[in-house]
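Hey, I'm writing a tutorial for new members on how sequence and structure tokens pair up, and I'd like a real worked example in the thread rather than a made-up one. If someone can provide the structure for the chain below, I'll link this post from the tutorial.
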Amino acid sequence: MTRRVKRDFLTTLDWSKQELASLLDDAASHRASRKTRRDLAGKTVALVFFNPSLRTRTSFEIGVFELGGHAVVLEPGKGAWPIAFEEGVVMDGDAEEHVEEVARVLSRYCDLICVRAFPKFVDWNEDRKDTVISAFARHATVPVLNMETITHPCQELALLLTLRDRLVTFAKKKLVLTWTYHPKPLNTAVANSALIAATKMGFDVTLLCPTPEYVLDERYMTAARGYAKQNGARFDVSHDIDAAYAGADVVYAKSWGAIPYFGRWQDEKPIRDANKHFIVDERKMAMTNRGYFSHCLPLRRNVKATDAVLRSDHCLVIEEAENRLHVQKAIMCKLLEGVR
């Protein structure tokens, strides 16, 4: 098999605004010609899941199938051997094999390796290294695609495609990325990715969260400030609900845990529980510029957003979920472009 130098899709920090816009064009093309293309005919894709999934697993399996390829789903620790990732590790615990062998063997079998591996939520200084997918990318000789780790770039592009359909242009449009309550502390991945996507593509972005503890990792905050400056756009952090919602064109909701409390969730719980009023409801949406609402799903009704918001004509959660299928097709085809 002839291969070009591989390129991975781990985070959109590594992809330019122009490249992402091109992927959106490709995704729209895939959507318009669904079930008629065979771009992945004869190709095999490994889908490696360390965490549960509904939309991600379904959309990737169907996407590979509709493009004529074959997907193999692996769940290390369940239907596949547990894997170790540390360099120099003495493997006398549960792990039966090391990622170095796993990635190299899968590279002999498959044309593409896709990985879903959440952080462990104990120590953010360790989690932010994205050890699992970074190790796959380092040892694999085929492209590696991020199905969600500490970022969620596929969700990011699905959001952009959904909003492009409705807004046409992103410039001078206000997007509010709002924290919402959830009874459990959740991954920051979707929030990190939404922040990158919105600022890189030219939105005026407001990050709305209860307290400074809920601001995202500085890596993404710094990137957001830089992208906003490049685009002549605004990037603000707010803890004022009414001011943030005022005039918004888009409200994107997500719950996430406060990074300073990683591994100490009981200490963070009183802050989280005191801010249930961050729910997206009709009153808040009425302050927007007839704004659209979306969320990555799954979503706890009447905890993160009310029934009325979810049933509104301006709710885009289903469109965004569908667009996962189309953007992932575009990404897979781009990574395998020129591979025979």
